[in-house]
Amino acid sequence: MNASASVFTRQDEVRSKIRKVSVFSRYARVVFSAIFAFGLVGSVAIVLIGVFGMVFPGPISDLTLTVPQKIWSLAMTALQSGIWLAIVHQLYRLFGNLAGGSIYTADNVRRVRIVGFLWLASSGFMLLPVVWTWLASMGFVEPWSLTKAVLGTAWPEALNSFVSAGFILLISWVLDVGLYEKDQADALQRDADLVI
Asked: Do 65 and 36 share a structural domain?
């Protein structure tokens, strides 16, 4: 009798936690929706300012960059913004699944893995100033007037970002293995129920 009461208590506890995850996820989904909207507007504004700054020279475009460097910077900024928006979108969809009660699913594992790979790609962009400076020192590209502050912070920021991406990918792998084990346990339980 104690064992069955313990099982019911555990099931009630799990249901309560699932409800809490759903409520939190609904709020998180709203937050990520707002972040995505503001990020999209900001990214479009940055690209437009960059394009119009090249077309109509003014204070914004009075940097010591050549036109090809400005185009390269604009393209990299747009690509980096696109990756960031894709990460926010994946998190929005993940919290949508969690809000609906779908917690331990293959779709959620896939979304976490996509976030990890996108974060890894974003980390690579942080090394572009260092790579550009190295290529310029070898004579392959035009030198770019990058300050030492930018170059000095590129390595530590990229390292932190690569480590974060590695943790996210590790979490997705652990979730994938756990999901496989859960599916196997569910299949064994179904087989046992059929035998009974």
From this structure: yes
Q: Which domain holds residue 68?
A: 1-102
Strands (E), the chain: none
**Quick check: 120 pLDDT over 90?**
yes
A 10 A CB-CB count for 169 gives 17
Give dist(CA 124, CA 80) in Å, integer.
Answer: 10
The CA-atom distances, in angstroms, between 105 and each of 70, 137, 172, 179 are: 44, 49, 11, 7
Average per-residue pLDDT in the chain? 80
Per residue in 36-61, pLDDT (tens digit) is 999 999 988 887 887 776 554 544 44
Specify the pLDDT at position 154.
Answer: 66
Closest by CA to 106, choosing from 15, 53, 179, 9, is 179
Chain Cα centroid distance, residue 142: 32
Same domain, 136 and 185: yes
Number of domains in the chain: 2
For residue 126 the two structure tokens come to: 């942080």
Q: Are residues 184 and 128 in the same domain?
A: yes
Same domain, 86 and 72: yes
